[in-house]
Prior knowledge:
By secondary structure, the chain is mainly alpha-helical. 56% of the residues lie in helices and 5% in strands. The protein is built from 22 helices and 3 strands. The protein has a 3-stranded antiparallel sheet. Helix 14 (188-201) runs antiparallel to helix 22 (343-359).
Amino acid sequence: MRLSKVAYDPRVVPLLLQLAVDPSEKLSQKAQDVLLNLPTDDARDQLCEEVIQEPKSLAFQLCQKLKLLPRDDERRCLYLFITLQFDQYFEEDYQFQHLRAVFERADSLLKRRLLSILRSGDQRLLGFFMSKKPLRECDEREVEFALKSFLKHQDREKLFQAFLELPLKYGLRILHDLSRTDWQPDTPEHLSLYNLAQKEASQWLPPRQESLPSVGKIFEYWLQRGEESNYSDWTVEEILSQLDTVSPPEGVSLVQALSKKVTLGSDASRYVRLHPHWLVRLAAIKTGLGLGVERDSMEDSNYWLNHLAPKHPLLEISPNEANPALLEELERFEHENSDSELQPARKVLQILMAHRMTTGSFESMQIEIDDYVGEFEFVDDNDDEEPLGS
């Protein structure tokens, strides 16, 4: 069979690379010609994968000549990093998000190779080792990593602090894990809160929230415009008055601007949650204004909103959203819907929000990452210390 025919199958790329260094000049040249003209994206991706396995190889020379990069975002970042193309790498992954995701799943050999590069002395790479970020601002993957670390090291104080800060989709599971131990908070105030929450939850576990699909770069761009445009100078009344007249994409931007000015449970948040256009309602969900406490599950007339929004919006609400209007809404719903499936969640959220409002100032947990093994510390909300490695 001709080499150009079998090249359609990405599995033959390693064989072609072996033939490309064959002592027979004729066979070697033929194999290289085929590799330079791989007919499918899958085959070209496989050639890039061979570079990841062995950066100093003929495969890398061929990819450089063809200007090939993997199509997948994570693999492309890994390819650029492991071939030391840092300038291009940082254009793709300046906060190490993709590289950390790869590192977490990597086998021991790949981790050693990555750490060898990370410790090579390039100052730009220090951010991978040392960064500080509030736990409540972490993405889902970072939160899960932190909680697994707390559980692994039986650090119940930090688990409890995470319970006080994180949305209920995490908090109620933390409470469940703590309930299976004999641990108790060491301050009377926290002990009272903990016992009340345990009584209301009583081993009850919420429905598990699935990871949501991305809303897409265009939608994220519309949201970003709400922070970068002059909308920040508009009053709440001006924003609301324009929502029914502007185009839906501009409405998304307006909701983002609005989210910086009003709180969950306000009249403005209820207005955007019930807006006639689904894109505006989706923006309300993504900014947190459209979550609400009265619904057990997401039910909307629009298919895409149901697909992109959390199934149980209540479980996405953080105790940090506490305000009098939302607390009043929780209390009202408790009396009117005692048979609700998520009633235990509402009662726990009510306890946490009442505590947050009574406490006033609140100690916020921040994550400091060293060698991508979680090390965690507490800092005040007004702590102005520069992040390590900045």
